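Researcher: Please predict.
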Amino acid sequence: MTLTIVSLLAIGYPTLLVLVGVVLVMFVMLIGLQRRQSRQLKSELEQLDKLNDRNVEAEFVLKAMHLATWHLDTRTGILSVDMDFRDKSSWVAPLEGASNNRLISFLYPPDVDAVMKTMNDLCEGRIEEYHMEYRVMIPHTDKFYWEESYATVVERDVESKPLSIVGTTMRVDYRKRMEQELIDARVRAEESDRMKSAFISNMSHEIRTPLNAIVGFTSVLPSVTSDEERSGLLNMIHDNTQKLLYIIEDVVSISRIESGQEKLVLTEFDLNMVMMEYVELIRKEQNPSVEISTHFAFEKLQITSDINHLGQILKHLLSNAVKFTKQGIIVVGYEKPAGGKVSIWVRDTGIGIAEEYQERVFERFFKVNEFVPGAGLGLCICQAMAASLRGTISLESKPDKGTKVTVTIPIR
């Protein structure tokens, strides 16, 4: 210690002061360096925290959207998954480690060509990115689910060929279902609009025909002096008034059915008696060259049903048979009940219905022959009435051979 002090004193005070100054400067610089390093370290830690926060937020978004994120190595064709939050409530195609060919094998066959072309274009560098919707088959079934995928090139070689592709995939079954429901709703709306136009057109024609006859014959009536001619005009006015009344009744009936205002009133009654009542009514309208007969399984059959709904069915079936049968026979009957149901039918030898029209004749306002009067609501009403009775209606027909319409309803 004594030697060191003696050595320092031997140096001299000026030199000593310089050394002390150098030490102080180095000490200040060291403190400054430590402070800069401390600030840099603090900044790096803050950036790391932000990055971690950002990763958490990104993961949260991916999870909320049920997305899977992946990378595709174009050299090996192998796909690696970063995160997979797809809806896995049912089977989904595995992504991790899958090759392009393996992924293609899961696709719905009609979508394969489009997906392969897009993927090849992206891997070859012909396009920068893609957005696709395609269907994926569920193994061992004929069902599929919808996927939506986005992808873009993130790394290229020196020749600008894609090396790595990043993409996202998600299931979109719910959205596709919503889209289809919207399309169906639009089709129904358009069909409803078409039906309304058909209704207005058809009703204006159907109502105008008897109404014109009523107005015309009524205006001529005061100038007619012959009792026979007057009687004939009055009969024609009456007939056209009845036709107009039937058209209005049909419109009211179909409106009640569609609005759900038709309520069942079940009572017990004799089926034979009700059917004969409508047969006698229709006999007044039949062509003299047409014979109407009955074929009942029993002399009397008590059933429980809605007599008004059944009456509507019989009235329209018989009216159609008379309208389309110019000669031959019309037979009305029912078969022996079975399984708590009875089948009531009306068969005629009229013009018949071609096979391609047999399903459509139950549609509202559909008419095979536009020149035959009638609003085209009869069979539609019969079908609706049969359904309200928890029954069914069917039709058998051949052109120029006749038609048989059968209604099967519960009887208790």
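Model: The CA atoms of residues 365 and 376 lie 4 Å apart.
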